[in-house]
Amino acid sequence: MGEEAADHRKRRTGMDHKFIYAVIERNGQCPPIAESPLDGIDGAAIEIVCYRDIAAVVSSIDIRRFDPGSSGKDSYAQKEGILKSDLLKYQQVNLSLLKQAWSSAVIPLKFGFTARDGQQVEEVLRGAYIVLRTLLSRLRGKVELVIQVSWDLPKILKEIRDKCGLPDSLNSQSGTRDPQLIVEVGRMLFEAAEGKRENFITAIHDSLSSLSMRFFDGPRNAEEMILNRSYLVAKEKEPLFDEAVDLLGTEHEGYLSFRYIGPLPAYSFANIELNRGNFALVDRARKTMQLPEKASWKQIRASYRKLVLVHHPDRNPGNSLAGQRCVEVVEAYEMLSSYCRSLPNFIEGREAGQFSFAEEDVEKVFVVQNERSFYASP
């Protein structure tokens, strides 16, 4: 009785919640996490909670750790240090998962996501299954590689000035005091530098895009940074991507400096937010696939084949929107496929009647929203 009371007290005060690091694929048995030298935040043991063919990687945590007012004696610097340490551990666990042979795909959940206990973790997996299953299929065998590029702007501006025959500075010492001329020359320098920046970015992307499947632009946090781009790359193409980055560094030496980060879990390509009311995502996929509110698996497959052929870039030369439209069709099909496979009447390769995409039916199983677009424009 005393142990039960202690357990209840832990749950009530938040001392035994589950911190969720990521969701992974599993084949048959739960992954052998015990064989991996992993520990979680504050040294807690890593655990696995399985549901169907996916699993959550978790550890026990006192959620008061994330309450800014829970440790009044700690200084701001101490609290910030704890937060940074926890975030580093979160990243280390996810990176370790990516390297495990039994982990073919990893979806990191947002840092700080917790559940009340293991049972609630399983409820999350059950309710979130459609989107998680879809994303795991997309990310299987792929990694995120990040390219951060900075330029030597003073050197580039000097070359522009020399090419245009402009003085190094427009001031009294150079004999130029005309404000209008100063503004005009400044505009010319800015436009020329912007053109250079765009040309650098185009050259870099042209070299890397054929080796990747998706890309996403992150914020440029420094004035000298001209590019912060994440690429989704198949693991077997990673050596070729490495070589391409090395070649770019050699070609642009003296003008550009490259920071190459990875391989990482696909942080930039899966932004999971758990909420109820995601009928809109399935409904949008259904409309993209031009399907009625009820459709059979045969109808879904036929519509997919037809639309991919219609919108394939090879059949639409000169149409810049065709590739985007084809991506939308593929992703809509993946979404509907995961939804149908989550239903009890789905049997692979056999006609199983019609599947309902009505709101009241979708809401029973669909509770996840992926806020990050899987396709990003340059």
Describe this structure in words.
The chain is built from eleven helices and 13 strands. The model is unreliable at about 5-15 and about 365-378 (pLDDT under 50). Strands 1, 2, 3, 4 and 5 form a five-stranded antiparallel sheet that branches. The chain folds into three domains: about 1-140; about 145-270, Alpha-Beta Plaits (2-Layer Sandwich); about 280-360, Helix Hairpins (Orthogonal Bundle). It has helices at about 1-15, 75-100, 120-125, 130-140, 155-165, 180-210, 240-250, 280-290, 295-310, 320-340, 360, and strands at about 15-25, 45-50, 55-60, 105-110, 115, 140-150, 215, 225-235, 255-265, 270-275, 295, 355, 370. It is about 45% helix and about 20% strand. It is globular and about 75 Å long. The chain is α+β, with helices and mostly antiparallel strands and about 375 residues long.
List the helices and strands and how they pair.
Blueprint: H1 2-13, E1 17-25, E2 46-51, E3 54-61, H2 76-99, E4 106-108, E5 114-115, H3 118-127, H4 129-139, E6 142-151, H5 153-164, H6 179-208, E7 214-217, E8 225-234, H7 238-251, E9 256-264, E10 272-274, H8 279-288, E11 294-296, H9 297-311, H10 322-341, E12 354-356, H11 359-362, E13 368-370
Antiparallel strand pairs: 1-3, 1-4, 1-5, 2-3, 6-8, 6-9, 7-8, 10-13, 11-12
